[in-house]
Amino acid sequence: MAYMSWAIAVERKQDRLALVSRVTLLRATNTFADAKGALDTIAATSDIPCSEAHIEHMRALTVNTRSIEEMGYFEDGLLKCTSWGVTAGAVTRSGIDYVTPDGIEVSIRMQPLVSGGKPMMALHSGNYNVLVAPSRLVDVLIDDGMSIALATGQGTIINTLNTPDIGLVRSLVAAPGKGMTDSDLFATARGDGLLAVATEPKSKIAASLRTEQMLLLPVGVFIAAFIVAVVIWLSRKRLSPLAELETAVRNREFIVHYQPIVELKTGICIGAEALVRWRRPDGSLVSPDLFIPLAEQSGLIEPITDQVIEAVILDLNSMLVGDRTLHIAINLCAADIKSGRILAVLEDRLANTGIRTEQIWLEATERGFMDIDAASVTLAKARERGHSVAIDDFGTGYSSLQYLQRLPLDALKIDKSFIDTIGRDTATSSVTSHIIDMSQSLGLFSVAEGVETEDQADYLKTHGVDFGQGWLFSKALPAADFIAYHRHTKEKYGAAPEVIQAAAG
Ligand code: C2E
Ligand code: CA
Ligand code: CA
């Protein structure tokens, strides 16, 4: 705004200077035209030179032509008579400084001998001349502090007002126009072989600058306030869910909670399922149900799974190395089961940790088995490396039986919806025992999900389900709490028996 007010003030001054120079030029050309008119009129008379009538005639023209002060008649280069009367003595014509486009010869400064007044400008044409007061040429109203100059097209200064910088005026003869130097603003006007220059010191702008600033600074304050408001609004505005999730992945906002998995017979904690949580910058936790679907759709699930694996290692490395019976189950997304990318990631992250591949179980849902051939390749490779593979949410899909026999699996996680029916007389109640039987006949370990009551646990135990996971035992816990939970149950129930150690690899 400070710059703008300066620029506007300069612009305004230059416009004013341009106007003054145009007026000056107009004034000068009118003066020359006036003088020429008088010279033409007198040249057309047939009076006997220097007769009373002739002198009378010249005097009348002088009086009636505003610009001219005196008129003279020459013969053989000598002044014979003027509008004042017949001259005595030999007065020669003054030297010529320049010639106007319409042929008038101009002497810029000459001393009128007859009247003996101030220096005059003489305009000669034929046998006559007229004297013009130089001040007439620049007789315009100008602002305080402005200066003007009138020069010929060749750079001869004809007259000035308020002593302008002559060096500047000379330089403008070669390059006219609007502009400014270190000290002055200027503008020019050109026409009829004349150049009018108007200048003003820059220091004069200060006053008008203050006026501009008074006007523009509030505008500047308003614009600044507006920009600040927009920035605040933008920063508060919520991003699209996908953009938010992208930012979360970039900022590694994912942490893992661990839900203990317990041997139903003994109550011993044999491991945990890693369940991802999105911890927002404000500290709030977002449930995976709210962002996993979008993450799977957008492909962001892959970097999230990587962050889960990294978190498991960071959180539980020494615990897993210290207790080889423990395992952590990691949920795989459909894309990773299809591509097998996850196996390379696991190999890379587990290297040099001391954690055995046998201690990492992989959970895959039916969604991952759409391409059953690719899935069986990945799962077979995973088992080759030592991982155990569990089918997650078993019973909720459509093609359970079809793929169950074709896929290389170790365990089956019975979905919570079946566990919920235990002890209730519903249509699906009987399905639960069939699912348990099925896993046993296929030689798979079974894990019951979402066990909430003792009755459910008792039922599952008597039906031979190996492991349970649910709020009855524990909710998903932050790493430190899970480590404490595990230590506590170990003291209470002892170490995992051989069979579990075998199951864990
Ligand atoms: P899931 O794999 O079936 O995980 C079990 C879910 O059931 C967890 O919810 C767990 O907190 C909840 N749960 C466990 N016991 C009980 C219980 O007794 N009662 C009730 N009402 N709920 C219980 P969570 O942690 O909200 O996870 C939801 C789903 O998000 C998971 O279902 C899984 O499909 C997905 N998920 C979680 N973490 C990951 C991950 O790291 N990767 C992928 N791809 N998916 C994940
Ligand atoms: Ca799971
Ligand atoms: Ca599940």
Describe this structure in words.
The chain has 505 residues and is of the alpha+beta class. The protein has two domains: 1-213, PAS domain (Beta-Lactamase, 2-Layer Sandwich); 241-494, EAL domain (TIM Barrel, Alpha-Beta Barrel). It has helices at 2-43, 52-64, 134-137, 166-174, 205-236, 241-250, 288-298, 301-322, 334-339, 341-350, 372-384, 400-404, 416-419, 429-441, 454-462, 479-493, 498-503; strands spanning 68-75, 78-82, 85-86, 98-99, 105-110, 120-125, 128-132, 147-152, 157-161, 179-180, 184-191, 194-201, 254-263, 269-279, 285-286, 327-331, 360-364, 388-394, 411-414, 445-449, 467-469. Helix 1 packs antiparallel against helix 5 (205-236) and helix 8 (301-322) runs parallel beside helix 10 (341-350). The chain is rod-shaped and about 155 Å long. Bound molecules: ligand C2E and calcium ion (2 copies). One calcium ion (CA) binds next to strand 18. One calcium ion is lined by residues 273, 331, 363, 392.
Flag low-confidence runs: none
- What is the CATH architecture annotation of the largest domain? Alpha-Beta Barrel
Structurally, how many domains make up the residues?
A: 2
Structural class estimated from helices and strands: alpha+beta
Helix fraction, binned, reads 40-55%
- The helix tally amounts to 17
| Name of the CATH homologous superfamily of the largest domain | EAL domain
Q: How large a portion of the residues is in β-strands, by DSSP E? A: 15-25%
Shape: rod-shaped
Q: What is the name of the CATH class of the largest domain? A: Alpha Beta
Number of strands: 21
Based on CA atoms alone, the radius of gyration comes out at 53 Å
Strand order of the largest sheet: 13-14-16-17-18-19-20-21
